[in-house]
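Progress narrative, work stream C.
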Amino acid sequence: MNALTAALKEELNVEMISIGGLQIPESVVVSWGIMAFLVICSILLTRNLRVDHITKRQAILETVVTFMRLPCAASCFLPARVWARA
């Protein structure tokens, strides 16, 4: 089994990073970095949202979210027979 494990590691060529004595694959560390970036951006962009007298930033965010949801809304609410014709 050790020969198989060594062969697979050599074939996959996974770089390992040592954090606190733990060996963590580089891809996991990169994923954590991307997730941290997205969470921080989400927190910064969505704080102080208002219902009345919205800011320019909120108007832009709402426009982006509306356009992102349009294709999903069109595909989610159309009957299946409409998609069968396409």
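Work stream C, second folded protein:
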Amino acid sequence: MKVNYSFLVSARVTTSFGKRPLEALSGVTSWSASTTAFVPASATHRANLFSLTNGTDKPDNSRSYSHKKINSLYGTAQLNWDGCTSSRWYAA
């Protein structure tokens, strides 16, 4: 099962003169995936013969579970003044 959540916020501060001295963007992402599988425990004596009596050991199956999760936080800010622009990017 895979799950993905994203959240994004943008802000713009405008002065009374119509200039935009500050713009900012920030976001969060969360991704997770999990799997469950059955894993056979033994090899076979004869290739391509799938039988309980063809195994090198007694029949014994086990279950495998895997889970992975990634969280991201990111943002940017842009500051404008008198026609000059300065941008900074931050990510964690």
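Residues 48 and 66 are 28 Å apart (CA to CA). No further action is required on this item.
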